[in-house]
DNA sequence: GTAGGATAGCTGCGTGGCGCATCAACTGCG
DNA sequence: CGCAGTTGATGCGCCACGCAGCTATCCTAC
């Protein structure tokens, strides 16, 4: 039964991805506690380090799902903690660019790098083909999550 | 340069997994808003539906990273919403078993199933070998996240 | 140019989830 | 039978967040 075998694989992947995502949430929480921050703050720092250019408050709001007001408070916290700095945008004077303060963020990335060693060891056990398969799947899953999220937002209430 | 090629694959996977996880957080938030719940509540329902047996409040607290007090409030909310029911445990009268109310949870799983169709379509594009690779990686990543989380918790403060 | 709409960011205000400390009920060990 | 350990509930305070309103700025139309 190729069909039932495939169905079992789907089932298993569904279950494992749930556990995987749940573990990520817990890990993120633990990391935030460890650094004396909130999960949202860590998420924001992760986004800022992933992007080469500084982000505006509005972009942070969109990428985290917060309102602009809450994003302002988020940047307030990070600024007060010394992680980021506000820089006015010369092109558009309404906008504020949020830039990382490298020496302060280093404390965070140091923890990431520590953990990164274990991740490297895990990845070393994969072939290059496997790495590409996983990466491609995550990209597809990301795109799908994104469209489904927008779909949910556009039709907010089932009541 | 096989080394630099592999390094580039690591870089790419790191970047994609970040975006993947960020998208999941946003999706979970949107789903919670859609259902008029909180992300934690959705997470809890997801855990409860994943497990065949009912969970105790303590188990829910551990699996969500909440304190027992907050877990009690969480179960309060779900019970008030009609999603779960409290059942005393005969074996250990300190414990309270949290059981799902199927007909009410169906509203939630209906949304999941709707979205599941798109996920099925995504998975149909994979070979069985690829599915196994992804599943295995997620299991390994889950285990690693779990041990790293415990490691972070055991050594809470870097200050 | 200038009026009007759209957008970016900041600020009071109220809500509510969460951690912390405490407590009662119960278990299991000596 | 005590007594330490565990489970779950509760009072309390904190603070992240959404919401509404505001100002400043940009952009388009006339």
The geometry of chain A reads as globular
- Determine the N-to-C terminus distance of chain A: 42 Å
Number of helices of chain A: 6
Described by its quaternary structure, the protein is homodimer
Can you list the strand order of the major beta sheet of chain A?
1-3-2
Helix content of chain A: over 70%
Q: Over all CA atoms, what is the radius of gyration of chain A? A: 19 Å
Topology order of chain A in helix (H) and strand (E) letters: HHEHHEEHH
**Largest chain interface and its two residue counts?**
A-B, 69 and 68 residues
- Approximate strand percentage of chain A: 5-15%
Write up what this structure looks like.
The structure is a homodimer of 159-residue chains. The first copy, chain A, is mainly α and 159 residues long. Helix content of chain A is 74%, strand content 8%. Chain A is built from six helices and three strands; from the N terminus they run ααβααββαα. In chain A, strands 1-3-2 form a three-stranded antiparallel β-sheet. In chain A, strand 2 and strand 3 form a beta hairpin. The longest helix of chain A is centred in the first third of the chain and has 34 residues, at 2-35. The mean pLDDT of chain A is 90. Chains A and B meet through helix 1, helix 2, helix 5 and helix 6 of A and helix 1, helix 2, helix 5 and helix 6 of B. The first copy, chain A, binds a DNA duplex (30 and 30 nucleotides) through helix 3 and helix 4.
